[in-house]
Amino acid sequence: MIAGAPPAPPYEAAVRAATPVLVPPVPAAVGRAPLCAKRGCVMQPSDVTSASRSHYFCDRCSGRSAAQHLGGSTRRWTCVRCDYDICFKCHPEPGATGA
Ligand SMILES: [Zn+2]
Ligand SMILES: [Zn+2]
């Protein structure tokens, strides 16, 4: 007996295995991140976006970093897609609760 290559999987199984599983790109902060009120996007800390250094206007409490809201820091939750911002007073920043 000559052992050949292991048998190929049935065609259907191969196709099924090749089908990409739809996994949404969830940032690491998911579970703590607020959702953007415009489209329900998972918001991101501004640190990881290009908006981190621009001033924000909190869409919940109307706080303005330019007016020294929360010490004037420009860090906040942001949805780049919808241009929606939430300050860390309205929703605590990730890790702030000591988790
Ligand atoms: Zn706010
Ligand atoms: Zn959004």
UniProtKB/TrEMBL annotation:
Keywords: Metal-binding, Zinc, Zinc-finger. InterPro entries: Znf_ZZ_sf (IPR043145). This is ZZ-type domain-containing protein.
